[in-house]
Amino acid sequence: MNRRNFIRSSGIYTAGLITMPGIAGLKAHPLNNGNAELAQHIIDRVEFIEASYYWPRLVGRNGARDIHGQYRNSFVVRIHTNQGASGWGLSRPRAQNTTELIDGKKLTELIDPVNGILDANLADFDIALFDLVGNILRKPVYQLLGANGIRQFPIYSGMVYLDELDEDGTFQGWDRVLTNCEWDYNYGYRQLKAKIGRSGRWYPHAEGLEKDIEIVKLIHDQFQDRKMDILVDANDSYSLDDTIAFLSGVKDVPIYWVEEPFYEELEKGRQLKQWMNLNGFSETLYADGEARPDHEVLGTMMEEGILDVHLVDIFGYGFSRWIHFNKNLMSRGILASPHAWGDRLKTNYTVQLAAAQGNIPTIEGVTCLSDDIDYGNYELKDGLISVSDAPGFGMKLLK
Ligand SMILES: [Mg+2]
């Protein structure tokens, strides 16, 4: 049984279980049937807040980008109504110039709780509006969207970077990377995504490839008596030949997925998938669509069975758009795992989408700590993350 069939038969994959009305079916939905409660709410205040958070360790380079650092801010919007309700979520600074799109408007003019925002121009308020609706109706977002019954999901740590390099880019041995993996295991992860692509920017080409193979084997050895899936992500830093050389080099290590080996190109994708199928990697998923997604190429890759998992970002693409996009992917037999790197908020938004619709075999975990944000009750244990049952997205802004 290949991995995709395994994922589906294991119950993680739930294509077909969810039924959500299209635009034409809106009136039939109980939440949308002139929902009197939502209609009473008029937006009367909009605030923008920088909430600070930090990763538990300094995060170094990936194949493409320099040191990521440790201390960050989430730029969020908090929306208040004339009835005293509020909701908040990730936004963008440009939204400060477009508050007239929502200020003074009835909530029911802005969002439908089943289908999302009613105008694409509201994208910067999308998540906060969902949170607001959930708070008013006292339901978590996944229940607004039609819960599929599954409440726990596999999650991987997306924080295993090229941390063997010091600030100057000098190799310091593998201890730090392996210690980071152990930290993630102790935190509850049972899947790790190791950054590869060392042959691109940070090492001489052949040495970088060798180092990628070496670290993936070391991680595999470290966890071989414990459950730990290994995913790899080259951040588009490989060529097709590099990808094949890497996979040949790690041959006996099961690789859960290969992410962004090179920027999506149809012919290269075809060749890689064909090579994988013929060389013992038929169970390894091919994941792409995170960086500068070319939706036309990705669409053809899906049609041809090259792309297994679509990664377009949960926030960058948009939560409401993802609701519709995930349904589309399900109908085509393509798995989803929205990119969430950077911010724990995005991990938790993705958990709500997974609990609503399924089709997400594993969620990108971004471990974050914050004095400004309470990330809510999304328990991470034994490799699984649970969805929060608190209203909205179930998280609190503490400032
Ligand atoms: Mg990536």
Brief description of this entry?
This protein has 399 residues and is an alpha/beta fold.
Overall mean pLDDT: 92
Helical content stands at 25-40%
What count of helical segments does DSSP give? 11
Beta-strand percentage range: 15-25%
Q: Per the principal axes of the C-alpha atoms, what is the gross shape?
A: globular
User: Regarding CATH, which class of the largest domain?
Assistant: Alpha Beta
Question: Can you offer a commentary on this structure?
Answer:
With 399 residues, this protein is an alpha/beta fold. It is built from 11 helices and 17 strands. It folds into 2 domains: 3-15 and 146-397, Enolase-like C-terminal domain (TIM Barrel), CATH 3.20.20; 23-138, Enolase-like, domain 1. The chain has helices at 3-9, 36-39, 126-137, 141-144, 175-187, 205-222, 240-249, 266-278, 295-303, 319-332, 344-357, and strands spanning 43-59, 69-81, 86-90, 111-112, 116-117, 152-160, 191-195, 229-233, 255-259, 285-288, 309-310, 335-336, 363-365, 373-374, 380-381, 384-386, 396-397. Strands 6, 7, 8, 9, 10, 11, 12, 13, 15 and 16 form a 10-stranded mixed sheet that branches. Strands 1-2-3 form a 3-stranded antiparallel sheet. The chain has a two-stranded antiparallel sheet with strand order 4-5. Helix 7 (240-249) runs parallel beside helix 8. The longest helix is centred in the middle third of the chain and has 18 residues, at 205-222. The structure holds magnesium ion. The site of magnesium ion has 5 residues, from loops.
